[in-house]
Every structure is written in C-alpha cells, then in structure tokens.
Amino acid sequence: MGLIRDRILNFSISDISDIGNQRREAVALGKEVGFSPIDSEEIAILIAEMITNMIDHGGAQGRVIMCRVQDKDKNQGIELWAIDNGPGLTDLYQAFKDGYSSKHSLGFGLGTIQRFSDEIETGIETIPKEFQEINGSGTVQGLVICSRKWLAQNRWIGRNRNITIGAASRPKPGERINGDSFLIRHLSSTQTLTVVADGLGHGINAHEASQLAVKSIEAKASLPLPEIIKHTHKKLIGTRGATVGAALIQTDLNKVSFVGMGNIEARIITPQNKHALISLGGIVGLKIRSPRVYEYEYGADEFLALYSDGINSSWQNDCENWDEHPQKIAEYILNKFSRDHDDATILIIKFSPENS
C-alpha cells in the first residue's frame, strides 16, 4: 500500500490489567494525529477489544503495536496491531461475525473491531518490515490483526461519518449458533442501511434464515425498501423464515425510513421522548403483508435503537447512560436486558454530525 509509519509504540501484553494503559496510549496517539473525541473513544474500544481477544483466545500473551500512518496521498491515520501467541483461528470469516465465539463468551469482540476499523488486515504476511523485531526473535505465531482508522480529510472511505454505531448480538444461552443477524451497510457518506433479522426459533435453521435475509438485503441495498423486503421474502421461501426490521438513515435529510415485518422493534430516542417505529405483522419467507415505509425525523444527538425480541423492552425505562458511546450502550443493554430463552441483538445508532 506504500504506507509511511512513524511514532511507532511497541508494548508487551500479558494480563488484562494492561488494557487501561494501552487505552490511554492509543487515545493520546489518536489525538496527536487529530482524531475527534468520538473517534478517539472508538480507538479506545478497538484496543480494549483487541487485547481482550488476545488474553481470552491468544495464549494470554502477545504484543500491541501502535503507530501513525500516512498513505501516498498524505492522508493520515492510526494503525493498531495485535499479535498473539495463540493457536490462531481456522475460520476468520465466521469469527468476525458478531455472536460467534470459540469459547463461552458473548462473541462480539472481533465483530466490533471490524465495524470500527476503516480497514482491517489479518495474517502474519501483513506485518510490515518496520516491525521485524517483534517478540525479540523476529518470529510470530498465532493471530495477527491490524486495525486502521483514517482521518476524514474531505474524502469518503466507505462510512457515513455523521452517525456513530454500536452493535451487540449473542445466541441463546447454551447455543453456539446465533439465530439473529444484522447488517450495517453505508450506501454513501450520508446514507446508511441498518437491518436486524431474527430467524424463527433458534439454532442452525434460524441462523440460516437470518443470514440469508441479511445477505439478500445487502445484495439489493440500493433498491427502495419495499422492493428489498419483497426480494428477501422470495429468497427466504423454503426456509424457517425470519422477522426483519430495516431502517434507511439519511443524515442529509434528517430522516429515518423504516420497514418492519414481525416483532423487530425500533425506537428513536430524543432528549424529550422515545418514539416507536411502526412494524407490520408477518414472517419474511412465509407470509407478509405489502411492505409499507414509515418516515420519521431524526436529528442531531438523537438515537435510533433497532432490536430483536430477545431484548426485553423494559430497557427503555432503565437505560439512562446516553452519554456513553453507542457500543457501550448496546453492550450494556444486551448484558442486562436480554432474555435467557432467545437469541438477542441490538443496534444503537447516534446521529453525530460533528463527527463528519
């Protein structure tokens, strides 16, 4: 890629207590590069997730490397590297999906890393020449993850920077496969499609239905919402079926357009109120009514919550930590308000125009 790296910081990791210091180091470097407070918080979340994954799955030791990075067009950013001594992962694609875990954990760490990174690389072969002396011997074993974040600098790098997103999802306790799936697809610098799909029941058949739903929606993401739902309905015929909620966020128009089929719930949370978004009855793939779009105003510092019925709706009365990053809010709600008998997924999206 022809990247230039400097301000290289190299740390040995051996214990979960290392997270606090590395968060501070990463945030300080991010601020030095010029990241906003919101992006700096995401950098802190990234490094915490990378170290947590290293401790839990990577042989409990490794290294974290941070540096400032510049591309051939002089765009600047930050790189975060996590290099562990564990057994590695046989299925990286599966591991980066929220809700997957090779151990009995919630399994949204690697998914969070992917979601908050502008670019992500894995594999020993990605380690640059500047880092050849890693581990003292120059040899590396285990998993290598590189997360790269760029300053906006008047270019679109595949994200709608007017919104800040948190997502948390886990399978029914005791299950390894998540029957819920979700999609976050940035269509432009001002438009983002967000989806939660809940396959009927739980286990592998529910997982297959919800995964097919989000893949079908992603394939037709540029179509109007009703056409997306109709297309997905046809694709899911013969499966167990799924309930689906799809929200198109248009930050240039201060608007959310929503289509819901079944018991996927959605709320817009303002400083004064919580507005329920209307969802129609039906099961995509089995029987649905004609999809209808409902439009809502969505302004600065307001939140959109989109969640499956594995989340108890009582969270709306008890969750007051709206000053936190949406990722922390989503994880808090999932941990405290998810039902024991079902898969659970929640997206929290804040309209943050100052982050553009």
Structural account:
- With 356 residues, the chain is of the alpha+beta class.
- The chain folds into two domains: 4-150, 2-Layer Sandwich (Heat Shock Protein 90); 163-355, Phosphatase 2c, domain 1 (4-Layer Sandwich).
- Helix content is 26%, strand content 30%.
- The protein has eight helices and 17 strands.
- The strands form four sheets. The chain has a five-stranded antiparallel β-sheet, covered by helices on one side. A five-stranded antiparallel β-sheet has the order 6-17-16-11-12.
- Strand 13 and strand 14 form a beta hairpin.
- Mean pLDDT is 86; it is low at 99-108.
Biggest sheet strand order reads 1-2-3-5-4
Q: Name the CATH architecture of the largest domain.
A: 4-Layer Sandwich
CATH class of the largest domain: Alpha Beta
Question: In percent, how helical is the residue content?
Answer: 25-40%
- CATH topology of the largest domain: the name is Phosphatase 2c, domain 1
Gross morphology is globular
Range of strand content: 25-35%
**Count of DSSP strands:** 17
Q: What labels would you give this structure?
A:
356 residues, alpha+beta, Heat Shock Protein 90, Phosphatase 2c, domain 1, 2 domains, five-stranded antiparallel sheet, 8 helices, 17 strands, 30% strand
